[in-house]
Design goal:
By secondary structure, this protein is α/β, with parallel strands linked by helices. The chain contains 27 helices and 38 strands. A 5-stranded parallel sheet has the order 5-2-1-9-21. Helix 1 packs parallel to helix 8, helix 15 packs across helix 17 and helix 21 runs parallel beside helix 22.
Length: 804
């Protein structure tokens, strides 16, 4: 049988998902060719903000890697754009003069960012926020410039602003409307969101219309229609997107706002289809993922000539985490004369709920801070449910009736990937699935944002009954294996495995050499389990940890010497100044951790710089204790109750250099005024009259989390003891690259507290920590004294950068 030629223009989420659906139906029916303008395989555009924010590597947001295309016999032309379609001859032509014939053609060209036609919009320093290249551009700008302006207070603008804050920039968000995210939130929820984001450091200029971007050769600032001006080194336009229809227009395929399609995603041209953000269906153009995936299913069925439910449109809903804050909206979000509302507002918990009712039916909802009801409300809105049904279901849930049991099988559980309850139940029953990870691999549920994991777990429990054990749910450490972190650690201990290569071989890794996720993780677990025996495998570490300095965009490095507790002296400052002059340091910057960062040092000069500084490494690159931030304390401050500097220095000297699952930051404040920001650190200490409060699990980054009170103690010695036990317990039970904020939520504060309160366990943890500390070395000194390490690591050869 001769295969039909199927060509897909666009390598994004909607188009590739459609191919996945086609492959499920008829794996060998088509000879498939894909054109993608970007030099990347298919990736999750929703997660771009996490790449910008520094939480995630590009590899981690890849949905279908290069191997997937090869395994499915798909020919991918990446970095290549189709410039013309001959719909008569059924041929496409690319910008590299490549001609490819098709029997069926899918247009999935997505959307393009809307760039305001402002004077100065073409200046250097103006960018959109739409793809990986935009992220890379902003990251590069942040290393040289510090003042950013984001035009647009919608979701994309806020995510860009959060990322730029993480990159150390000051950020103004300019929005023309009266409040943020006006398409997804009502004013009450938007005002709560604004308050939360202002706490994170964002500055908002609302009801502002940008008139001009000014500057000589590059951006210097913005001027508004009211005459006000602000300074800016970087301008990010995040004012919206528009369907990318240029190839359709040029090729005579009918277009309105988007490429016109019917309920099976057919255009008005024979054998040409369109799906995703470029398509216009019944007057609607969708920019959210779930509708695009529903479209893909309808199109796949049509192309494969099987009976399939037509796509009839989607009730728009948005369930998001905006800079660490949960929000949800669906249907109508603002009241009018025809609607009534049920409202609940809890200022103390920071939650808000509004349910809109029209003709006794639930027509819309807005949730802020607590979005657990989102799926239920969306189901009721989609089904035109009477408000009494909502009230009855609430009563049933209060009485212990399972919410997922009441959902119909066609209910969408995973909005990101368009997976229904029925899809999940069928996969569990027919494929023998028993874990969330297996459901994700089989159905794509929870594959993107992960917000539906609790519902997936509930469906597993509902379907499997007593066979399901929530406590045993696992997630593989990477795609090279199906084993979880706990299974790998147990195997290393029980089988006495001593090297990463041995672990991969004995535990039958899918890939011979592992990947950038599992190699550093295995290296950490082995070092944690065998602190006295294991020889650190430097080749398994990220480049910054391998070279003990932070690599910059130009290939030079930054060096951060340790200043215990943020305290320095004239001798150290003279050394830093002398070294900076001698080695032409491009930038000296005081860090948020109260130290000095030295930028622009050549790789081969690093050992000489360290020798002449004669100071310990500050581990600004490490998965270990970074800093212990302190306030001036009782000796100088009129409000101080304790010696915060002394305790901070003791903590830093006690716990420096030893590896942890992720970076670990501490702070000591001398009084509840908390000038050292102890409430958002991995471990924070606050001095009070007669003792100390110890807080844990805080995070001042993207997923802002206030620390929880672990305990109260009377002496600094008790602080150090409890910190040692907590530090070691995190080392022994944390998943590699899991911050303590996530670890505390996973383990449970009450459980951690019970371990810390057990005298015997606390003593044992400190003993094991002491053992590991006996072999911890000062890395800069070790390299200075080793010609072998200097030759291996610092000869002028190109360093392969492993994304972190």
């Amino acid at each position: 049988m001769v295969k039909q030629k199927l060509v897909l223009i666009g390598n994004g989420m909607a188009g590739i998902r459609c191919l996945e659906e086609i492959l499920k139906i008829e794996k060998d029916a088509f000879e498939i060719t894909v054109f993608g303008s970007e030099n990347h395989p298919n990736y999750d555009r929703i997660q771009l903000s996490k790449v910008l924010q520094g939480d995630t590597a590009i590899e981690d947001i890849t949905l279908n890697d290069w191997n997937w295309y090869e395994q499915n016999n798909i020919l991918l032309y990446s970095g290549e754009t189709v410039t013309h379609i001959d719909t008569e001859k059924q041929i496409v032509l690319s910008d590299k003069n490549r001609e490819v014939a098709y029997d069926k053609l899918i247009l999935a060209t997505g959307s393009v960012p809307f760039i305001l036609p402002l004077p100065g919009a073409d200046k250097e320093g103006v960018t959109a926020f739409r793809n990986i290249e935009d992220c890379e551009k902003m990251i590069e700008y942040s290393k040289e410039y510090k003042k950013a302006a984001v035009i647009g207070g919608g979701l994309l603008g806020l995510e860009a602003a959060r990322g730029l804050l993480n990159l150390g920039m000051e950020v103004d968000v300019i929005h023309i409307a009266d409040y943020l995210m006006e398409r997804q939130l009502d004013e009450a929820a938007a005002n709560q969101l604004r308050k939360e984001l202002e706490k994170q450091g964002m500055n908002f200029l609302l009801r502002k219309q940008t008139q001009e971007i000014f500057g000589e050769n590059r951006v210097e600032g913005l001027r508004f229609s009211d005459g006000e001006e602000i300074k800016a080194d970087l301008v990010v336009m995040a004012v919206g997107i528009k369907p990318n229809t240029s190839i359709a227009v040029e090729s005579g395929i009918p277009v309105n706002r988007g490429i016109l399609v019917n309920d099976y995603m057919e255009t008005e041209i024979s054998n040409v289809f369109a799906v995703g953000e470029c398509a216009e269906h019944r007057g609607m153009v969708y920019g959210l993922v779930a509708p695009l995936y529903e479209q893909g299913k309808a199109l796949a069925g049509k192309i494969c000539s099987v009976d399939v439910r037509p796509y009839e449109g989607t009730v728009l809903s948005t369930k998001l985490k905006v800079s660490g804050v949960d929000v949800f909206s669906a249907g109508i979000i603002n009241e009018d004369e025809q609607t009534k509302a049920i409202k609940e507002f809890n200022d103390w918990k920071g939650t808000y709920k509004k349910i809109l009712i029209q003709d006794d039916k639930i027509s819309g909802a807005v949730l802020f801070g607590d979005t657990k009801e989102g799926t239920k409300l969306l189901s009721l809105i989609n089904n035109g449910a009477n408000v009494s049904e909502y009230l009855e279901k609430n009563e049933s849930n209060d009485a212990g009736v399972s919410f997922v049991a009441s959902l119909p099988n066609d209910e969408i559980i995973c909005g990101c990937n368009g997976v229904t309850k029925g899809d999940i139940v069928n996969a569990i029953e027919t494929q023998g699935l028993t874990s969330i990870d297996e459901v994700k691999g089989c159905t794509n549920a929870s594959r993107s944002c992960g917000g539906c994991k609790p519902l997936v777990a509930d469906i597993l429990e509902l379907t499997l009954g007593d066979e399901f054990n929530k406590a045993n749910q696992k997630e593989a450490i990477c795609s090279c294996t199906t084993l979880s972190r706990d299974e790998v650690v147990v195997a290393i201990r029980n089988m006495n495995l001593k090297t990463t290569r041995e672990v991969m071989n004995v535990l039958e890794w899918n890939t011979i050499d592992g990947c950038s996720k599992c190699k550093p993780a295995l290296n950490y677990y082995l070092g944690m389990i065998y602190p006295l025996e294991y020889e650190d495998e430097k080749e398994s570490r990220f480049v910054n940890e391998r070279l003990h300095a932070n690599i910059q965009k130009d290939g030079t490095f930054s060096v951060v010497p340790r200043m215990y507790g943020g305290v320095t002296n004239p001798e150290q400052l003279r050394k830093i100044a002398d070294v900076a002059e001698k080695y032409d340091v491009k930038l000296l910057k005081v860090t948020g951790g109260q130290r000095i960062d030295m930028f622009g040092i050549e790789k081969e000069d690093l050992p000489k710089v360290w020798a002449e500084l004669d100071m310990p490494s500050g581990y600004a690159y490490g998965k270990t204790l970074r800093t212990v931030k302190t306030c001036v304390g009782a000796e100088f401050c009129r409000f101080g109750t304790q010696d915060s500097i002394g305790l901070g220095i003791s903590l830093e000297k006690r716990f420096e250099r030893i590896s942890t699952p992720h970076k670990f930051k501490m702070a000591v404040s001398a009084c509840p005024r908390n000038c050292a920001e102890s409430g958002i650190k991995d471990l924070g200490v606050v001095g009070v009259d007669g003792g100390y409060q110890v807080y844990v699990g805080g995070n001042g980054g993207t997923d802002l989390r206030a620390a929880d009170l672990l305990c109260k103690v009377k002496t600094s010695e008790e602080v150090i003891e409890i910190t040692g036990a907590y530090f070691q317990y995190y080392r022994e039970t944390g998943i590699y690259l899991e911050r303590t904020s996530k670890w505390v939520e996973r383990m449970g504060l009450d459980h951690i507290r019970s371990v810390m309160e057990d005298d015997r366990k606390r003593l044992e943890l400190n003993i094991r920590l002491d053992e590991a500390l006996t072999v911890a070395q000062e890395p800069w000194k070790e390299i200075i004294e080793s010609e072998r390490l200097q030759k291996e690591l610092f000869e002028k050869v190109k360093v392969p950068v492993t994304a972190e």
